[in-house]
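One thing: mind reviewing this one?
=====
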Amino acid sequence: MDKAAPSKDSKKLEVDGHCDLSDAPVNLEALRDKNRAALRDIFRKIDSGTGESKAFILEQELVGLLGQIVEVDFLKNQGIEKFFFLSGEGLEIPSELSCVVFFIRFDLRNVRVLAKQVKMLRARNRSLWVIAIPRLPFVCERVLEEEQVIEDIQVLGLELYLIPYESDVLSMQVCTSYRDWMVEGDPSILYDVASGLMKLQMQCGIIPHIKGKGVASRQVANMLVQMRYQMPPEAFFRDLPEITQLVLLDRVVDPVTPLLTMLTYEGLIDEFFGIHDGCVKLSSEMVLTEQQIKTQTQQGVELPKKIKIMLNNQDAIFSEIRDLNFSRVGKLLSQKAKLIDEYYKKRHSSQTTHSLKSYVQQFSDYQKKHKYLHVHTNMVEKLLTWIRDSKFHAQLEAEQNLLAKDGNSELSISYLEDCICQREPLPRILRLLCLLSLCTGGLKEKTYNFFVKEIIQTYGIEHLFTLNNLGKMGLLCKYGETKPANWFSNARQMFNLIITDPDEQEPPDMASIYSGYSPLSAKIVMKACSDLDEKSASEDGLPDCGNDVITENWKSAKNNFIQNMPGGPTFCLNQKLDPSTMLAISERKQQEDRPHTVFVFFIGGITFAEISALRWIKKHRKINMIIGTTNFVNGNTLIECSFEKI
């Protein structure tokens, strides 16, 4: 339901669908349990003040995040009887529910909506509580004071930072993180990132080595050192550290990759359907079988317009195909269909008790696979109709032309002009315009002024703010404003980003993910991990215990080039550990030959295709890798966060 026109009725909350964390490189199940326990403690504080049945009002954008922590039954066990979405309209809350709990991530866009709701509810003699994620910011507190509602509510902070979305993926789900930092200049997201990483260290041990690139990443590293000295040593995990290295990367270090059209299966689902909090909403016809639709129609049951489908490792078929180039997916689904069909045929040939028992034991598993296969087959067919469209091919050709060493930017400029004349969606146009700017070292003055004029005349004067914001975000600039101007062409050569005629069926390189382009961000991460097996020792031959001093030295052959790339400083930090711990780490490595565990964190968002590239590195480098991010992005969402609501 659109937030601009919410219903006043109570909602049926859909928050179920956890991923399986049993095979995570570190104990992420404990992290989820701690998040759940923190929410339970909040409700205990509320119950000690009221002990009444509750109405629960939450932001619609937080439903998916909540679903990664708890189930609906958990919330009902806390005394919640009715659910509502936060809006500026009056809500029809039953009079017997004298306790109202708000669940909100505060910002200047929603604090006044909350104030309006409080004014409507306080006259009804209700106890009003606000669960603030992760806390109530000072500026929002001042707004509540100005609205004269601060005395009517009791605010409890809930420190939710890193939320497991997969056994190897954590997200904070702060969808405005890139804009908040780059446009608004709000550093609170950096404090939240540091706080989340500190909580992870308290559980998994102090991470010995930290590398990163970017202004934001450097500030986060500084905060980690400061936070650590403010806490007692016993607050941290006392066993050997579970994570070997942390790699921090600002989104602005590689602004090119998220603007490109993703070509993995999961990436295309996000491009066309949209993946939100680990799920996709599909039409009933794509999810239900013909027999199910017929039965419900005969029974007079109205089919839902959209059905939520979880996309995580609980779906065995999706887990296998999510990271593949889309060209490989159809063949694999056909193989799965054949295997499932062969299994069902066994029921006719099973004559012994043993064979019947084996068939029955696998029946539930194959039923699930059959259901998932039906959904994925329908999604693939729908995606095929989209990617076979001439507009999709024209967009893809324009992107690849800009990436190529001998690409002709004039062809892309001509294509952009045609798109504007046809009033194509503005995010599509701005994606390519920003890509043109980044790949050519900035737009010429004449070209820049031409497109500014065309966009304002076609899409409205308000997008003058959009273009200005894109400049602040490091996505759109004039020639000469970025130093060095030819940084991308140098990176393309230095990192061998482009491979002509990649083998998408048997991919030898991560470039197959983008049909010939290797994500620059993934290449930088690979270089950061290149010296993991080098023994770090001090001058006396003992293990280097670190000194908590941040330096600008990466032990990498391409360090000088990475250092001089736009996006901010390159840095390295060896956190100080006691000698016995470092010696134990060294001995464990020699005795057990354990693979290293690397935690890669993107500040400002990561695409699903980049996650696929990092999984490729994990597989071929034979290391364990956990991927963290402030939020998930694609080209459209990255561009749309620059829009101003006027």
Q: What stands out?
A: Confidence is low (pLDDT under 50) at residues 1-8, 535-543.
